[in-house]
Amino acid sequence: MDDHTDVVSNSHSALALNTQSQTDEYDLSSMNFISNPFETYRTLLQQAPIYQSPTSGHYYISKPDYIEHILKNNQAFSSDRVNTFTAALPPEQIAFIQPLINGLSKWLLFQDPPKHMPLRRIINASLKHKLLMAIEPEIKQLTQQLIQTMKQEQQNDIIQGLAYPLPALVIARLLGVPASDIHLIKKWSDDIAQFMGSTLSASSAIKAQESIIDMADYLTNILNNQTVCESTTVLGNIIQYQQDSSDFTLNDVIANCIMLLFAGHETTTNLISNLWQQLQSHPSQLQQLIDNPALIKPAIEESLRYDGAVHRLGRLIAKDTLIGNTLLKKGHRVFLMLGAAHRCPERYSSPDTFDIHRKPKQLGFGFGPHICPGAALGRLEAEIAIAALIEHFPQGSIIEPPQYINNLGLRAMKSLKIKL
Question: What is the CA angle 108-111-115, rounded to 5?
């Protein structure tokens, strides 16, 4: 979640927000910035690798060494930050959106070690190499089916035709959700992403709460189907963990299934679409990949670096901590600007060049205790999807400039239309 403004009106139907003060030195939230953040990133790296907004007090960190240090130090920089999103709200407003806050606070994403480690181990084990080997043929089959549907229906938006449905279908399969319901998952996930990644508004908060509630009701029905629970690896393992852990309730199961449905496709959708956009923008690199398909693995890593699926992460400062020559003060929020760190010339030679021969150390799936447990699955899905696009649409050039979704954390396009 990112950059919510902590002011709300007295009516829950009219949540108010503060506009960013013009006294801020850097624009880090406008649509102009979201559409093309790289000049700002370059300036931050050169002039303010640690920048504190005079308006909000938030810190913005762009230097990769500092970011890695923060992501490893969960004692000083906490993931347990859901309450910060509503800290300044009147009590009646907090009460109104309490179901949303309660649901998010149970997510593994917003918990610190050691509390989050047992469940994390279960999810890691559920997504281990053996499962990926078993599900790889199914992912390839799904990909081919989606490609054929694109051809038959003349669907030229690869996000709608492939990049969204493929990872959504895979994570749905792992959690016992019927393929026919992934349109529901998209609607709910879009509402949650809008709340988590943009400035707080009445509609985004209310829609996110409604979607959390609807997803909880939906998943409760799935959990009541014993056959489904026993036949799905990830869901079955989480339920078994719940039965063995007295402090992990059914509500915790539901909340973390919501998290997996949301996070299990969102990043991969952006990875697939962003990589295809980058390859089409660099035809010589695309041709090298066509000539040597083994380059797909470093191409994915380079895509995560060059213009990755996630551009910033948030943490709450739990105690005063010196980073570089700057004292980061307890109680403030800190935003880790991954998109800027990936363009740091101290770490990457020619950082503004897209080069699929590069094998970069990148932070696109996180770092430290909260590194994404689904990273290997996301990479596999992207590898299969890009190979299929090259096979079926080798001349699939982009026919209109992409427009980016108003989201400060995710690098997400509204659509990506190609020549079929």
Answer: 95
Distance CA 166, CA 143 (A): 7
Instruction: Please name the helix (run of DSSP H) or strand (run of DSSP E) that holds residue 279, with its range, or none.
Output: helix 250-281
Beta strands of 58-172 (E only): which ranges?
A: 59-61, 77-78
Cα-based angle 365, 370, 375 (whole degrees, multiple of 5): 35
DSSP state for residue 355 in the 8-state scheme:
-
Helix (H, G, I), strand (E, B) or coil at 336: strand
Instruction: Determine contact, residues 156/150, Cβ cutoff 8 Å.
Output: yes
Give the tokens for residue 145: 């089916």
Residues in CB range of 378: below 8 A, 6 or more apart: 167, 267, 268, 271, 365, 372
pLDDT (0 to 100) of residue 15: 36
First vs last C-alpha separation in the chain: 36
The continuous run of DSSP H or E covering 409 comes out as none
Are 253 and 239 in contact, with CB atoms under 8 Å apart?
Answer: yes
Specify the DSSP class assigned to residue 327: E
Is the dihedral angle over the CA atoms 187, 190, 196, 201 positive or is it negative? Answer: negative
Q: 3-state DSSP call for residue 116?
A: coil
Strands 50-52 and 59-61: antiparallel
Place of tokens 């918990």: 111
Other CB atoms within 10 A of residue 154 CB: 8
Q: What dihedral do alpha carbons 380, 383, 389, 390 form, nearest 10°?
A: -150
Mean pLDDT by 10 residues, the chain (420 residues): 33 35 79 96 97 94 97 94 71 82 92 88 87 93 97 96 96 92 92 80 80 95 88 87 90 94 92 97 96 97 97 96 96 97 97 96 92 94 97 91 94 94
Spatial contact of 87 and 6, defined as CB atoms under 8 Å apart: yes
CB atoms within 10 A of CB 319: 13
